[in-house]
Specification:
294 residues, alpha/beta, TIM Barrel, eight-stranded parallel beta barrel, two-stranded antiparallel ribbon, globular
């Protein structure tokens, strides 16, 4: 069975492996969305992360698994500007109100377990912890429409000098220190380890850490770096690099859950099988980190 972990101070218990529903925005996955989402729940995954930015994702979740709502914890995002005018993300009370009502309708639910500001950094919230956008999230929480609130850091583009992890390195501890957010979603993987110290610090403060990009090839030399570190020497029989990277992230202190997306039910099952093996042995994890360097 999949390991279950506490999602920080939210009071939620989720599987250490979650499903990132961004893949459902791909039109070729729309027809098979029911099969994909059914495979997610049937495999025992209990945490699903989505966003209005992911096109049809919320609607497809509502269409295909709303009748199984009690089986999973649902996370979505706010600040998403789908009007086609202005910036892609707007952090205002009015924008959040629109996002929330749209999400509840599309997801066919009357509550969201975790509501996250999407692609946010402190400059977007000039009032800090007292910013009206933050207060709007707290109001939704008080009304029972959302259970917990959090943030999801942007990656930036490949031309952004902060790509893909430096936004969270620069701001994660600051924003966790505001004391208002229950979770923070961050890029983390064996070959994108820049924010390890921040992950451990904010987790120690009671903030749930959601890792994404665990298997993503952020850099052209990604697999070469794995070969240079001779990671394959640590693989169990039948394992491949993806399996090892997944278990590596499971081993990192402070991570509550990770979200991995796929439009292929067979890949979902494969990821679950790897996760069910649990974290790497402590000595293997330490040796892999040593070979990978800082």
């Amino acid at each position: 069975m999949l390991e279950k972990r506490s999602l920080g101070r939210t009071g939620l218990t989720v599987t250490a492996l979650g499903y990132g529903a961004m893949e459902l925005r791909d039109p070729k996955n729309h027809e098979n969305a029911g099969r994909i989402l059914g495979a997610v729940l049937d495999a025992g995954i209990t945490f699903i992360d989505t966003s209005q930015d992911y096109r049809m994702s919320e609607t497809l979740i509502g269409q295909h698994i709303a009748h199984r709502r009690a089986q999973y914890k649902l996370a979505t995002k706010c600040g998403c500007n789908l009007s086609g005018q202005g910036p892609a993300h707007v952090f205002t009370r009015a924008q959040f109100a629109t996002n929330l009502e749209d999400s509840l309708r599309k997801l066919r639910t009357d509550y969201i377990d975790l509501w996250q500001m999407h692609c946010v950094t402190p400059p977007d919230l000039p009032g800090g912890a007292m910013d009206d956008a933050v207060r709007a999230m707290q109001d939704a929480k008080a009304q029972g429409k959302v259970g917990a609130i959090g943030i999801s850091f942007k990656n930036g583009s490949e031309k952004d000098p902060f790509y893909p992890t430096q936004h969270q390195v620069a701001y994660a501890c600051e924003m966790a220190g505001w004391g208002v957010f229950d979770t923070i979603q961050m890029v983390y993987g064996a070959l994108t380890r820049t924010s390890e110290k921040e992950i451990e610090r904010i987790a120690d403060a009671g903030v749930g850490v959601i890792a994404r990009g665990v298997l993503k090839r952020y850099f052209p030399d990604y697999e070469q770096r794995a070969r240079d570190a001779r990671l394959s020497e640590f693989f169990d029989p039948g394992e491949d690099l993806n399996d090892f990277l997944l278990r590596f992230a499971l081993s990192q202190k402070g991570i509550s859950t990770m979200i991995i997306g796929s439009g292929n039910p067979a890949h979902i099952v494969k990821n679950v099988r790897a996760a069910e093996k649990g974290p790497l042995p402590a000595d293997v994890f330490a040796q892999a980190k040593f070979r990978l360097g800082e």
